[in-house]
Design brief:
Shape: elongated
Distance between the termini: 36 Å
Strand content: 5-15%
Strand order of the largest sheet: 3-2-1-4-5-6-7-8
CATH superfamily of the largest domain: NAD(P)-binding Rossmann-like Domain
Order of helices and strands: EHEHEHEHEHEEHEHHHHHH
């Protein structure tokens, strides 16, 4: 429940309870439900999930105490916020089912590739938010970039911000083009990081470290390095230079990475992901 006088939720909808309808209860829908409940942004009794899978409905009801059903129309009937969290291929059918039902509600879509214009036209509704959360949102450590139609009211944007903040950090942008770019960087980014972690752990094992020790060393090194950039505010290059002694071990390692075009390959990978995102 979002109420006035509750920290950053002040003034969103006064003391009125917020009812949220999720169309789709997959991994990201579940992540939102979990984070909203855990952080006490919305109580389970004020959330309903419509999903075609009986397995998912049973799991969500059991784990989080939310209401579940199979009828999308019934799900959105009394909702203040409608969250579209279905797979892209299922979106046209969902839009057809709930078209014209949204009146004063805010519609928040996390469906990949679904633009504001297509959502607005398909739903015959102008108050629409499009958001791009990434996979770490599943543990409340996500990065979400989002935007909204010009007709979306300020209090509705504040509601969307409060919901997305529960997933981790969020950035609002006025231009929708940045969502495609974020898809390639923060959306796909966790996969790049997981691959780097995997490779670094394997390298530790290769030189003789036990795997569990190598993994602990790598994970804390990455966490500590990330927090150092965040807390010091220094450019990563400046921080890298403090670790790199002339003629030392780090210099030798970085030389090998540059020989392998590490920096260029990463740039090319992100660019390729962005091109794919635009085609989608």
């Amino acid at each position: 429940m979002i109420e006035a006088g509750k920290g950053r939720n002040d003034g969103i909808m006064g003391k009125k309870k917020i009812r949220i309808a999720f169309i789709g209860g997959g991994a990201m829908g579940e992540a939102m439900i979990k984070c909203l409940s855990t952080k006490k942004v919305v109580v389970p009794q004020d959330m309903v999930v419509s999903d075609i899978s009986p397995v998912r409905r049973k799991l969500l009801s059991r784990e989080y105490g939310v209401s579940t059903l199979t009828d999308n129309k019934k799900a959105v009937a009394k909702a203040d916020l409608i969250v579209l969290a279905v797979k892209p291929q299922n979106l046209p059918q969902v839009i057809e089912e709930i078209k014209g039902l949204a009146s004063k509600q805010l519609v928040l879509s996390i469906v990949a590739g679904a633009t504001l214009s297509s959502l607005r036209q398909g739903l015959s509704h102008s108050s629409v938010v499009r958001a791009m959360p990434n996979m770490p949102a599943q543990i409340g450590e996500g990065m979400t970039i989002w935007t909204a139609t010009a007709e979306t009211e300020q209090k509705q944007k504040k509601l969307a911000q409060t919901v997305l903040e529960a997933l981790g950090k969020e950035i609002y942008v006025a231009d929708e083009k940045y969502l495609g770019m974020a898809t390639a960087l923060s959306g796909s980014g966790p996969a790049y990081v997981f691959l780097f972690i995997e490779a670094l752990v394997d390298a530790g094992v290769h030189i003789g470290l036990p795997r569990d020790m190598a993994q602990e060393l790598v994970l804390q090194t990455i966490l500590g390095s990330t927090r150092t950039v965040e807390k010091t505010g220094k450019h990563p290059a400046d921080l890298r230079n403090t670790v790199t002694s002339p003629g030392g071990t780090t210099t030798e390692a970085l030389l090998q990475l540059e020989k392998g075009r590490f920096r260029s390959l990463l740039l090319e990978a992100v660019a390729a992901a962005y091109k794919k995102a635009k085609r989608l």
